[in-house]
Design a protein that fits this description.
Chain B: Forms a heterodimer with GatD. Chain B: Pathway: Cell wall biogenesis; peptidoglycan biosynthesis. Chain B: GO terms for molecular function: acid-amino acid ligase activity; ATP binding; carbon-nitrogen ligase activity on lipid II; zinc ion binding. The structure holds 2 protein chains of 2 kinds. By secondary structure, chain A is of the alpha/beta class. Chain A has helices at residues 23-34, 65-78, 80-86, 96-100, 201-212, 221-234, and strands at residues 7-12, 40-45, 57-60, 90-94, 104-106, 112-114, 121-138, 146-159, 164-171, 179-184, 187-190, 192-193. In chain A, a hairpin with a 2-residue loop joins β10 (179-184) and β11 (187-190). The longest helix of chain A is centred in the N-terminal third of the chain and has 14 residues, at 65-78. Chain A starts with 6 loop residues before the first strand and ends with a helix. Chain B folds into 2 domains: 53-277, UDP-N-acetylmuramoyl-L-alanine:D-glutamate ligase, CATH 3.40.1190.10; 288-404, Mur ligase, C-terminal domain (Protein-Tyrosine Phosphatase, Chain A, Alpha-Beta Complex). Classes of the chains: A alpha/beta, B alpha/beta.
């Protein structure tokens, strides 16, 4: 049983949606909590099992079209994630997982598939695959950072009035309209895998801070060096 | 061999000339350019060159080059074998390989898994050897569930005898439409891409190598051949200790597949197995090289499943150099590093290099694996004490190390 002081992380459906190193987001959150002396309890929930609604931070990753459709169906039937969000849990949804959180997304033939409606977004299949490095200026509501990562998707996502863009793209495609990702309450959606938190450790701390309050600083040398190298490689001089 | 039509003969000859020019001018080994020239002059060249030969296509995410080599070695018992030994595994490479051995009655072709349907359709190969499918170079490779679906369609349309690894659910699904299949149980250490049923999406229940869908009838077929630790059990129940020169579990699996393919060609284990034992290194892989008193063993690992197999070969008592690049052939996305469990390296001296060493450094830091960051491979070697060392590198990082020690490897 989870102890009251531990941060409870729930990784949703690694058997369907963990194609792009999504485990990395889990590992980075765990490490950043532990290095601060905060206990962590992580649950990996396979798609045949119920999603517990008692977690603090939920993570869902990227994957192929067919597993994405299966995951959306199962999440809707299960209802655990929606209950957790209602009671104030945080969610990081990546790529296919991001699209699932909206009202609809494009299936393997471009057909509209119903999402689970936790974010006011709708996604369709774009004309070409967006593959490559992405850099974007983050919405100041979450801190004045540059988002750095890798995208690989065919989605075009339209943001409704119920969400704010996570960032404005400098390099890369993102949502397809000059923005990348979105956030609303404690839900953050992004097309960045790679995983997103490796080069955006500040975002990991946004999530941990939502659960625990103010956080002690860490030695972020390896994150910073990688981030600086990648941004130098992709940002215009 | 029947005589090729004049146009095909000319195309084939000019292709070989281009290949020779490529080699003598030091631009490459010639196996791609020669085929390209040939295919431009005669688009039907591959079909014509493949006609009237006994052909086996070898495809998988991992182990293609080595298994192609093992099968080639075995089939040489039966006669001359044409093969694309250098891993040029798309149609241009196939044309080049077949052009260079025009009289060979047998051919063993390594085929990129995306190209398998096309090459199968073009060549009408009699045999296909299918080993494993897992995530690989995600920024450009096809999604593997989709890939297996294409294999199914291609095999349903042909009369090809498939030899397939039944421990891999996705390979089993991809191969199951073939008219005739010889199932081989040769293991699947990397299971992260097959927890769900390829047929219906339901959960797969797995116990050891066995698996079955909880929701539909799709389940592991009964194998005819079984890899059992260091031995292969043939369809008659006879156990053959492999005793290969190539190291590791993955190569024992490659050997099990090769023996099953050899038998489809009528070559019994007692004749095939000694030939497999003659193979010591494949395109530089598993080679030992010497540098200033250090003996380096070179292991190639291109994706999470490959790293898992490489860790199985690496000696826990030795220091290890890891080198990672992210050029085109490697995939420009390094996210796969997060799918590899590096904790197995705790306690070894670990040296990190390659163009994307900072990605790897962060990955190891998060896994709590201490390491030394080195700007170059030479620096890493220089910091090691004399003695044996394991080296694991991904594709272009491996080629770069290999080039340094000479292509003779």
């Amino acid at each position: 049983m989870p102890s009251d002081s531990a941060v409870r992380i729930v990784w949703i459906y690694p058997d369907l949606l963990s194609t792009y190193g999504d485990q990395g987001n889990v590992l980075i959150l765990e490490q950043r909590a532990r290095r601060r002396g905060i206990p962590v309890e992580t649950v990996h929930v396979r798609s045949a099992d119920p999603v517990p609604d008692s977690g603090d931070i939920y993570l869902i990753g990227g994957g192929e079209d067919r597993p994405q459709i299966l995951a959306a169906e199962r999440l809707r039937r299960d209802g655990g994630l929606a209950r957790a969000i209602d009671r104030g849990a945080a969610l990081l949804a990546v790529c296919a997982g991001y699209q699932i959180m909206g009202s609809t997304f494009g299936g393997e033939e471009g057909q509209p598939v119903a999402g689970i409606g936790l974010l006011d977004i709708e996604s369709t299949r774009g004309p070409a695959r967006a593959v490559g490095e992405l850099a974007a200026e983050v919405d100041t509501g979450l801190g004045g950072h540059i988002l750095s990562g890798f995208e690989n998707h065919m989605g075009v996502t339209r943001l409704g009035p119920g969400v704010r863009p996570l960032s404005r793209t400098i390099v890369g495609t993102g949502n397809g309209d000059g923005t990348e990702g979105c956030h609303a309450g404690k839900i953050v959606g992004t097309y960045l895998h790679g995983p997103a938190l490796a080069r955006n450790h500040w975002l990991a701390d946004v999530f941990l801070g939502w659960v625990t309050g103010p956080l002690a600083p860490l030695d972020d040398a390896w994150h910073e060096r990688l981030r600086a190298e990648r941004l130098k490689a992709v940002l215009p001089a | 061999m029947t005589q090729l039509p004049l146009r095909a003969q000319l195309a084939s000859a000019l292709g070989r000339t281009a290949a020779t020019l490529s080699r003598v001018t030091g631009r490459g080994d010639g196996s791609v350019i020669g085929g390209r020239v040939g295919l431009i002059l005669e688009p039907d060249l591959l079909r014509r060159l493949a006609a009237d030969r006994k052909l086996v296509l070898v495809s998988a995410t991992n182990g293609k080059t080595t298994t192609t080599r093992l099968i080639t070695s075995a089939l040489q018992e039966l006669g001359e074998v044409a093969t694309n030994a250098f891993g040029a595994n798309m149609p241009a490479g196939h044309v080049s390989a077949l052009s260079q051995s025009k009289q060979a009655p047998l051919a063993v072709l390594e085929v990129d898994e995306k190209y398998l349907p096309e090459v199968l359709a073009t060549t009408g190969a009699g045999v296909a050897c299918l080993m494993n499918l897992s995530r690989d170079q995600m920024d450009r490779a096809a999604e593997i569930w989709l890939l297996a679906q294409k294999w199914r369609r291609a095999l349903a349309a042909k009369n090809t005898h498939v030899v397939a690894n039944c421990d891999d659910p996705l390979v089993t699904w991809g191969a199951a439409t073939a008219g005739q299949v010889t199932w081989v149980s040769c293991g699947q250490p990397w299971k992260e891409d097959s927890w769900c049923c390829p047929e219906c999406g339901g959960p797969l229940d797995r116990k050891g190598d066995d698996w079955a869908c909880r929701e539909c009838t799709f389940r592991r077929p009964e194998p005819a051949w079984v890899l059992d630790d260091d031995a292969v059990v043939d369809p008659r129940g006879r156990r053959w200790v492999l005793d290969l020169r190539l190291p590791g579990r993955a190569n024992r699996a490659n050997a099990a597949m090769s023996l099953a393919v050899a038998e489809v060609f009528g070559l019994p284990v007692e004749q095939a197995l000694p030939r497999l034992r003659e193979v010591t290194s494949v395109a530089g892989r598993y080679t030992m090289v010497e540098r200033d008193g250090r003996s380096l063993r070179l292991l190639l690992a291109k994706n999470p499943a490959g790293w898992l197999e490489a860790f199985e070969v690496a000696d826990p008592a030795l220091p290890i150099i890891l080198s990672v690049n992210a050029q085109g052939p490697d995939g420009r996305d390094t996210s796969w590093l997060w799918d590899v469990d590096y904790r197995v390296l705790r306690g070894r001296p670990v040296y990190v290099t390659g163009e994307r060493r900072l990605d790897l450094a962060l990955r190891l830091d998060v896994a709590d694996v201490p390491f030394r960051l080195c700007d170059t491979f030479e620096q890493a070697v220089g910091e090691l004490p004399p003695g044996r060392v394991d080296v694991i590198a991904n594709y272009t990082a491996f080629q770069r190390i290999r080039a340094e020690f000479g292509r003779a490897l």
